Amino acid sequence: xxxxxxxxxxxxxxxxxxxxxxxxxxxxxxxxxxxxxxxxxxxxxxxxxxxxxxxxxxxxxxxxxxxxxxxxxxxxxxxxxxxxxxxxxxxxxxxxxxxxxxxxxxxxxxxxxxxxxxxxxxxxxxxxxxxxxxxxxxxxxxxxxxxxxxxxxxxxxxxxxxxxxxxxxxxxxxxxxxxxxxxxxxxxxxxxxxxxxxxxxxxxxxxxxxxxxxxxxxxxxxxxxxxxxxxxxxxxxxxxxxxxxxxxxxxxxxxxxxxxxxxxxxxxxxxxxxxxxxxxxxxxxxxxxxxxxxxxxxxxxxxxxxxxxxxxxxxxxxxxxxxxxxxxxxxxxxxxxxxxxxxxxxxxxxxxxxxxxxxxxxxxxxxxxxxxxxxxxxxxxxxxxxxxxxxxxxxxxxxxxxxxxxxxxxxxxxx
Length: 415
Ligand code: HEM
What we know:
Elements: H1 13-18, H2 23-31, E1 35-40, E2 43-48, H3 51-57, E3 63-64, H4 71-78, H5 88-99, H6 104-127, E4 130-132, H7 133-149, H8 158-170, H9 177-201, H10 212-218, H11 229-259, H12 262-269, H13 274-284, E5 290-295, E6 299-301, E7 304-306, E8 311-315, H14 316-320, H15 364-380, E9 382-385, E10 407-413
Parallel strand pairs: 2-8
Antiparallel strand pairs: 1-2, 3-5, 4-10, 5-8, 6-7, 9-10
Helix pairs in contact: 4-9, 6-7, 6-15, 7-8, 7-11, 8-9, 8-11, 9-10, 9-11, 10-11, 11-13, 11-15, 13-15
The structure holds protoporphyrin IX containing FE.
Protoporphyrin IX containing FE binds next to helix 5, helix 11 and helix 15.
């Protein structure tokens, strides 16, 4: 058996932080391999890229999630006790809870709520000289997802909850004061969410049966017990937080419309191109760089030994832009998605494999539906100018957004 090639240096944490989207694929290319070994946060870690690597990563008999997440990510982005750290039957059972929220009509209802927000916000945008699109979209999505989940959100709390939910995904990887602010935001959000879970259980709050708040408050785990309030709070935030994070994809969609203006006309003329367009944004724009797991028990793959307990990182961004799966992978070509058969291992912006049995994101349909709604609105319902600004996406920033969050001017509603 060969030994896994090694990256240069003793520990790659800083190199990874400096180049989160390119580190794994570039190192693999330099070593002419699909995988290499290094240390991340001083722990031995195997990094892998490409669809073959994704296939082994998502075979659930080989890798597990318990204990795979760095503590600082759990204390900010994910919380403790949630689905991300479960394995086997416990995971599959909890996953049903999330998947039960993803019916087509239910997701369409959330889209309808966002469209309603757009109608409400547009007059104010017209009246203003300038709109910071990312800030507005985050706020709209906070309002829409809270209403959709059955979560009461008084007007006076909108800005605070939007900022707290944003801190969880924007500052998860931060070091220093931002990290501590994200931890505080999680603490406050969990207290808020646990309070609502308790109110539902006490009958003081009665959200609709199909709402996330009701489903999570009444969900029973495999042992027949309802979820502890803190865990239920983490799971409710597992719906609220990432739905607000779809704002990143929506700003990236606006960015693509600006950078590839010929697509505005194409999308106006052919509704069938909308989905390929947003899929290409999800493929090419950097958002979630990699996912982590641990080796369950020692196994061999492609002649290499994966020792029990080693952490494994799967490169999402590099797999989405792997030239073995994609022609001209760094070019923006939405047509590539027309009629393309789905492959759960080569297009993995929100994880891969099977939605029910693996850890693949249950919110993919929400992301696509929201992106399409906003994209259609930008193309058909308003005109706007994009003034001179720095629109470069900083590849060292997580998630990767333009410096001033996409400024629009002179917004006019079309008749
Ligand atoms: C903003 C766009 C989104 C991105 C980039 C994203 C990305 C991801 C990724 C990379 C994973 C991990 C996959 C893995 O571990 O293999 C994940 C899991 C998850 N996502 Fe999303 N997601 C997004 C939106 C959503 C939405 C809208 C929801 C709302 C329900 C959601 C809920 C979850 C949950 C609950 C998990 C854990 C699934 C499990 O462990 O089985 N995500 N997401």
